[in-house]
Each structure stands twice: as structure tokens, then as C-alpha cells.
Design brief:
This is PH domain-containing protein. The chain crosses the membrane at residues 28-45, 65-86. The chain is of the alpha+beta class and 194 residues long. The protein has six helices and nine strands. The chain has a four-stranded antiparallel sheet. α1 (3-13) packs parallel to α6. The relative contact order is 0.17.
Length: 194
């Protein structure tokens, strides 16, 4: 187990909730890059409008600097920044293991009584961490189970039970195997305590 996973396991053993966050460094870098390029576009527009004497034209890569600045601003400022913010919003999701169960994506709570076990199926890019639900848990979370079955069959992943729900796979702080082990550890400890 990695350092972050060992720390989470110790917290679980002490009965404390654990929040595992998604890695958002790449998405933040994309947002900063889009903002910087949008500022470059603004500078190009300003240079094209105010930087020269009347009647002079400045070119950038065979193009007038003003239209090039407008193109850069539109591409990175108007299109890129909102997309980067949307991606950043999605990457800030967490998986919380607490006393009552696990919470995914801040809206989906699965109680420990509905969870049988956790595991990993597939290999490489097509590896997925999942939790197996009881029949009652699967009936209550039918949409999640159906979505998981669709993803797993589309990727030809075998080994996951029919009542599996996929866990977030973009948690940069722990591997998929460590995530499954932490869920099993938390579920075992919570069921024993409860």
C-alpha cells in the first residue's frame, strides 16, 4: 500500500471517516493554460489596436495580429476556460468512507448493509474498481448497477458481479487495488462495530 492508502487505513481502523479526493492537478494546469493564452490573445488585440501608427499593419504568422488575437481569445477564453472549469468541477469529486457507508460524487450514498465486498476487474486502461451490492442494495440503486453493467460489457471486462456499482477510478491518491482494499476494510470494521 502507498503512503496515502496506509494513512487512510489507519484512520479507518480508528473509526474515523476518510475522504479520498480526485487528482485535479492536470485539470487545474489546463485552466491556468487557457487563462494565460486568453491573456495573450487580449495582448495581441491590444497590440493590434493600439500598438502601431495609423495605417501600419503588424503580422503574426502570416496573419494580421488583430484577427489572430481575436481567434486566440475566442478559442482559449470563450471556449477553453468554460470547458476547463467544467472539467475541474468534475475532478473535485470525492469518495467518502464514513460510519454509515460510502458516498460517491457527493450525491450517492451506499450504506454498509448494502455492500457485500469490493474488488477490481479488468486490466490497464480497462480496469475498474467496484462494490458488490446485496439484492436489496442493487434494487435500490438499479440505475447505478445498470450503468456499471453497460460500461463493463462495453469494455469487455469480466470478473465483476452482476450487482456491481463502479467506484470512481480517477482518484490519484490511491490505486484501484488500494481503493478496493480500503472499502473492504471500512465495510468490515463498520459492520463489526454496528
Amino acid at each position: 500500500m502507498g503512503r496515502r492508502a496506509r494513512r487512510a487505513a489507519r484512520a479507518i481502523e480508528r473509526g474515523r471517516p476518510v475522504a479520498l479526493t480526485a487528482q485535479s492537478g492536470r485539470d487545474l494546469a489546463i485552466l491556468v493554460g487557457c487563462l494565460l493564452f486568453a491573456l495573450v490573445g487580449l495582448a495581441m488585440i491590444g497590440n493590434g489596436l493600439f500598438g502601431l501608427e495609423p495605417g501600419q499593419r503588424r503580422h503574426y504568422a502570416g496573419m494580421d495580429i488583430l484577427p489572430a488575437g481575436i481567434l486566440v481569445l475566442l478559442l482559449f477564453g470563450v471556449v477553453g476556460v468554460p470547458i476547463a472549469i467544467w472539467n475541474l468541477r468534475g475532478s473535485l469529486r470525492t469518495l467518502v468512507l464514513d460510519h454509515d457507508g460510502l458516498v460517491m460524487h457527493t450525491w450517492c450514498r451506499l450504506p454498509w448493509s448494502a455492500i457485500v465486498t469490493a474488488g477490481v476487474s479488468g486490466e490497464g486502461e480497462h480496469a475498474y474498481a467496484w462494490v458488490e451490492l446485496t439484492a436489496e442494495g442493487a434494487a435500490a440503486n438499479r440505475r447505478l448497477v445498470d450503468d456499471a453493467a453497460e460500461v463493463l460489457s462495453m469494455r469487455d471486462v469480466t470478473g465483476a458481479p452482476a450487482t456491481a456499482v463502479l467506484l470512481p477510478g480517477h482518484l490519484g491518491s490511491v490505486t484501484l487495488d488500494e481503493l478496493a482494499e480500503l472499502v473492504r476494510l471500512a465495510g468490515t470494521g463498520r459492520r463489526r462495530a454496528g
